[in-house]
Amino acid sequence: MQARDTSLFPAAVLDALADAADRPVFEHGDRLVTGREVLDLTARAAAGLRAEGIGPGDGVALALGIHHQAFATILAVYAVGARLMGLRPGLPDTHVQYLLGLDNAVVITDHSTGYRAGHVRALDMDALLATEPEPLRPAARPDDVARLIHTSGSTGVPKPVAQTYTAMTAEWAWSPHRWAPAIRDLAPRMDRFLLFETLASQVVFQYTAMTVVVGGIVVVADLVDPSGPETLPEALARSRATATAVTVPRLSSMITQQRTRPSDLSALQAILVSGSPLSHDRHHEAQVVLGPVVFHGYGQTEAGMIAMGTPADPPGTVGFPSDKVELEIRDPRGGLVPHGGEGELFVRTPNQSCGYWADPELTAEVYVDGWIRTRDLGRLDDDGRLRITGRARDVVIVDAAVHYIGPIERAIAEHPDIVEAYVVAVPDETTGEAVHAFVVAADGRDPDPDEVRALVIDRVGPACAPRRVTTIAAPPIGPSGKPDKLRLFQQALAEADLPRTPSETTAGG
């Protein structure tokens, strides 16, 4: 039987809340919530979970809104040593049922999400929080799985990744002694962190917890609809927030909103961008329009944070890999690529996950001799900064030749009338597959498809020239906040009047 270790996560966050007993750690409208209050709620929820017979080794799924009670409930699940899985808003019901079926989890719900558990055992968050509190007795065991973090499912079903309590304890967010230089630069800017995305997100939860650890305040914003009535820049201005976390599409919206209806962002010191690569041009535009505030993080659900670019790093890079991360760039045969060359990134991190839940075949493919295959392509600059150049499996196969989609998207984005490009592979009777490009035009312009094709031919060759170019206002976004390429693929099939069955190449990302 595994021994219990009271130093394991969530001990560091609980200690930070105890240190913040009399000061506000959450702000929601006129409501200020102290560290003592959050600790009390955590103790109540933990007592309620224990009364329901939930403890080490049990699965608990959460379908909760964005508020301090949800944060306390998350900490309570960890305090009793259970296995947590957050359900992001917007997940299709089929995906939710698939995830719950994998873990046979109890679901904790509140009234804000409208989630219905169906045949799964459900607990009400408010009832748990009304339980008489008991002293917090951390019950975590080192090798137990602490959480299942499901990948976006943007090109298929979500894939739950398992992370142990030992790995959770080694996370950088609540461990100042593990901070890379970029995080030490970020920490003083986290005085008022604007929270508007679900705490089911690995990244959002980490930045929320980090804010508590560094002595800041988490400011909750009700931004259910990003287009109104209050935009993100307006919420940042009203709350005098110093930091917030966004995806690349949300960053693009911020840039547009600031150009057309600028808000006072003088208090803003850090925009934490993650989820997908940020192009050089968009990165530069963000620095021009929003100021020197962009921190561009690169990581994976499987590995955690790998590198982070600061406002001092050149646009298009993700800064220096953390000194706590081992990184190798390998060629298709597994050999090391010479410095400066492009290849697939393999990483080892102190807090990496241990595999895919209930999927040994995929685990064997991605977890190789202690290393994680990121299936991202990248290279190191002469000064050691990391550039992400594409996805190893994000490909289009034309006449049996494999072409990476990343270089095609970058080539299209060079067109002066285009600010963003998204490519999917569609079936083609002649070549097997062909490129369909979706583009976001600059300032309402109408890119010439022939010019786009000519640009791609010049940069990456005729096989990669788009058969079709579709202008869109913005890419569809999946529950993770990333561009939803499955929906783009389905739109491409509809435009070509093809059957709506994803090819293996498209569905495998």
TrEMBL record:
GO terms for cellular component: membrane. Gene3D superfamilies: 3.30.300.30, N-terminal domain of ligase-like (3.40.50.12780). Its EC number is 6.2.1.3. It comes from the Bacteria. Residues 408-482 form the AMP-binding enzyme C-terminal domain. One of its GO terms (molecular function) is long-chain fatty acid-CoA ligase activity. It is a peripheral membrane protein. Pfam families: AMP-binding, AMP-binding_C. Residues 19-357 form the AMP-dependent synthetase/ligase domain. It is found in: Membrane. Pathway: Lipid metabolism; fatty acid beta-oxidation. Keywords: Ligase, Membrane. This is Long-chain-fatty-acid--CoA ligase. It comes from Labedaea rhizosphaerae. The lineage of its organism: Bacteria, Bacillati, Actinomycetota, Actinomycetes, Pseudonocardiales.
